[in-house]
Amino acid sequence: MVRQFKHHEQKLLKKVDFLNWKQDAGHREIKVMRRYHIQDREDYHKYNKLCGSLRSLAHRISNLPAQDPFRPKMEDQLLSKLYDMGVLNSTAKLSDVENKLTVASFCRRRLAVIMCVSKMAETVSAAVKFIEQGHVRVGPDTVIDPAYLVTRHMEDFVTWVDTSKMKRTIMRYNDELDDFDLL
């Protein structure tokens, strides 16, 4: 049996909530990690730091005077870089970097998520397995890291490795398998 708490102990326990902690951030981290199948918590923290530094950079640029010739040049460079990465769309403004840039926007550029969007895998977890087993290449290079960020220009170059059993199975299903490939 557990003893009864004394008066001062009960008062102290009223101030502490053991279920909800401040540093949990409302379980947002766990939701994002589960949705995008992020295996390493450090990846989430890297994306979070990157978002924070980009927001602060955008805030500093927006604080520059409007007549400064440096401001529009830096705005254009930042927005074009984020567009090329695929994090923002083409009509984005500097205020979108401060308000709409999230960790999830970086997670959507991960190789496993891009594979799901392009219908190479049914789920993100299946795509992660394919990547780790060495079935996927981006351009000429085989990628085994599911945290690989795919830019807009490299989206079209995500394919199966030539020696992959997955590619052979898909070609057999589509009746595209060559007799030479059977050997």
TrEMBL record:
<protein>
    <recommendedName>
        <fullName>U3 small nucleolar ribonucleoprotein protein IMP3</fullName>
    </recommendedName>
</protein>
<dbReference type="GO" id="GO:0006364">
    <property type="term" value="P:rRNA processing"/>
</dbReference>
<feature type="domain" description="Small ribosomal subunit protein uS4 N-terminal">
    <location>
        <begin position="4"/>
        <end position="108"/>
    </location>
</feature>
<keyword id="KW-0694">RNA-binding</keyword>
<dbReference type="InterPro" id="IPR001912">
    <property type="entry name" value="Ribosomal_uS4_N"/>
</dbReference>
<dbReference type="Pfam" id="PF01479">
    <property type="entry name" value="S4"/>
</dbReference>
<dbReference type="GO" id="GO:0042274">
    <property type="term" value="P:ribosomal small subunit biogenesis"/>
</dbReference>
<keyword id="KW-0690">Ribosome biogenesis</keyword>
<keyword id="KW-0687">Ribonucleoprotein</keyword>
<dbReference type="InterPro" id="IPR022801">
    <property type="entry name" value="Ribosomal_uS4"/>
</dbReference>
<dbReference type="GO" id="GO:0032040">
    <property type="term" value="C:small-subunit processome"/>
</dbReference>
<dbReference type="GO" id="GO:0019843">
    <property type="term" value="F:rRNA binding"/>
</dbReference>
<dbReference type="GO" id="GO:0030515">
    <property type="term" value="F:snoRNA binding"/>
</dbReference>
<keyword id="KW-0699">rRNA-binding</keyword>
<dbReference type="GO" id="GO:0034457">
    <property type="term" value="C:Mpp10 complex"/>
</dbReference>
<dbReference type="InterPro" id="IPR036986">
    <property type="entry name" value="S4_RNA-bd_sf"/>
</dbReference>
<dbReference type="Pfam" id="PF00163">
    <property type="entry name" value="Ribosomal_S4"/>
</dbReference>
<keyword id="KW-0539">Nucleus</keyword>
<comment type="similarity">
    <text>Belongs to the universal ribosomal protein uS4 family.</text>
</comment>
<dbReference type="InterPro" id="IPR002942">
    <property type="entry name" value="S4_RNA-bd"/>
</dbReference>
